[in-house]
Amino acid sequence: xxxxxxxxxxxxxxxxxxxxxxxxxxxxxxxxxxxxxxxxxxxxxxxxxxxxxxxxxxxxxxxxxxxxxxxxxxxxxxxxxxxxxxxxxxxxxxxxxxxxxxxxxxxxxxxxxxxxxxxxxxxxxxxxxxxxxxxxxxxxxxxxxxxxxxxxxxxxxxxxxxxxxxxxxxxxxxxxxxxxxxxxxxxxxxxxxxxxxxxxxxxxxxxxxxxxxxxxxxxxxxxxxxxxxxxxxxxxxxxxxxxxxxxxxxxxxxxxxxxxxx
Amino acid sequence: xxxxxxxxxxxxxxxxxxxxxxxxxxxxxxxxxxxxxxxxxxxxxxxxxxxxxxxxxxxxxxxxxxxxxxxxxxxxxxxxxxxxxxxxxxxxxxxxxxxxxxxxxxxxxxxxxxxxxxxxxxxxxxxxxxxxxxxxxxxxxxxxxxxxxxxxxxxxxxxxxxxxxxxxxxxxxxxxxxxxxxxxxxxxxxxxxxxxxxxxxxxxxxxxxxxxxxxxxxxxxxxxxxxxxxxxxxxxxxxxxxxxxxxxxxxxxxxxxxxxxxxxxxxxxxxxxxxxxxxxxxxxxxxxxxxxxxxxxxxxxxxxxxxxxxxxxxxxxxxxxxxxxxxxxxxxxxxxxxxxxxxxxxxxxxxxxxxxxxxxxxxxxxxxxxxxxxxxxxxxxxxxxxxxxxxxxxxxxxxxx
Lengths: 262, 401
Description:
The complex is a heterodimer of chains A (262) and B (401). Chain A has eight helices and twelve strands. Chain A has helices spanning 47-55, 79-84, 102-116, 124-137, 155-169, 185-200, 212-218, 237-246, and strands at 9-18, 21-31, 36-41, 60-69, 72-73, 87-90, 97-101, 148-149, 173-177, 204-208, 222-227, 230-235. A six-stranded mixed β-sheet of chain A has the order 6-9-10-3-11-12, with helices on both faces. Chain A has a four-stranded antiparallel β-sheet with strand order 2-1-4-5. In chain A, strand 4 and strand 5 form a beta hairpin. Chain B has one domain. In chain B, strands 2, 3, 5, 6, 8, 10, 12, 14, 16 and 18 form a ten-stranded mixed β-sheet that branches. Chain B has a nine-stranded mixed β-sheet with strand order 1-4-7-9-11-13-15-17-19, with helices on one face. Chain B is globular, with a radius of gyration of 21 Å. The interface between A and B is medium-sized, with 31 and 27 residues.
């Protein structure tokens, strides 16, 4: 039985194995429609694993728990269906796709999602107009659109390209894994403004980052600290500030609560 | 007996005396050709043995490429059964010799009934000539000939199409094609070749390119497997500063396909690049054999061989053989062969953006093929204008079926 005010994403007791390792041991949290949660944690605590597991990467095996997304059982869907349902995951190191022009890749993706929604495909002319406008707004040179996906892109260009995809696909929930890495000061400002604008349109965010300045600018609804595969703490900006000041090593490991309401 | 008939009989006699390709031939070890009888056919077989295209086809046909200029081109269709025309057809072309593929050349001389000679001129005000050449088979066993000569300083984009699927005719075709390319001083030829045989066809295509000083030859081949399909390219870099670049994308979904390239560097500052991608599925056999020989005195020669094989399903056999033979100290040479799966991270990335499994595989595999083309062609505009992306899409669709 679902209720109108159910969260957009509800994660309960999620356990994920990678090979023989138990990377995520017990993950519980919620994200509301249009909400923004920040996920922090030391290197190796399982942040990226969480994102890739939610996205349905075949190397990440779900060992237990359940995930409800937009009132559907997310774990029952394959990677494509999760994306089409409105889950967007920006990975930390977006891969190259040799020989596939960025504009073609984006048009293929947008039209695949539109087709799944029963919407007509965009023709090349209409699509390219919107693509160029979005790229310009994100400070991405138009010439990159004619180059293979991420091929020879700088770190910052890869991240802006991720945001461009997000803007075109208009997901319900976007998970951004260290979107700030490789970005200069101007790029950080672009990210913050972009996320604010997307939130205003109703997109919810799970943002993985280490940088307090960005966290403060994003004004999250909740901050989570991941420790050894568990949500160890949940709080607000004060938690982020404490971690920034004292580091993860001095943040007391806490037993994972069964549920962290945020 | 006229001279043409005598020449045909002499070629048959030579083939009988020399024998067909030995079953233990190292050059053909991984993909043995059908027996000689398959390639000789019947020289008296009437054209248009089949009412359906393509056997009722016109042989070689020449077409413009959109609104692109055709330049200064002289084309002559020559009848190899006519003594005078036969002499003109074979004038200046090398004799079959006694190399490991010579039996194919003798079989060709014995069966060839028609050929096309193209001469591309140059001069003030003559820009790049854009030509499309289509081959429609005329008999079930045939031996077409093509000779392309570029004058000094001439520039040409030649799109050569061998395509069975569009025809609707189900007759198996055995085709022994010999193509001779001659580039004058500082001439450039971009040679885009589509070779899509029918499933049961047996094709052997031989392209022999001789480059003059400073000449540049770029060839892109998009080919698909069949009952037997051999593509062989010989590059004679006997003049200084000559450059040859070959990019090949081979689709072998449960069929046989072999590519052999031999680059002979005889002069200084010559360059050859071979970049090949073999995609094989089912029980296919795909063979890529790239050889380069740098002769003594070929100072500053450059050779690069990059061969890749990707199984797309089933249990195909992929053989990649880059080989270098270097007889000079001051050269630059690199070669490599890689086998691997379709990149998993790229597939997942595409699926995370909403493409389904089949769409993602087609996109990523098509991209790998396109990347070969992009690395070989010096002018990206040529790839766009010639529609190679459609050829690749056709090959990917055939591969992933």
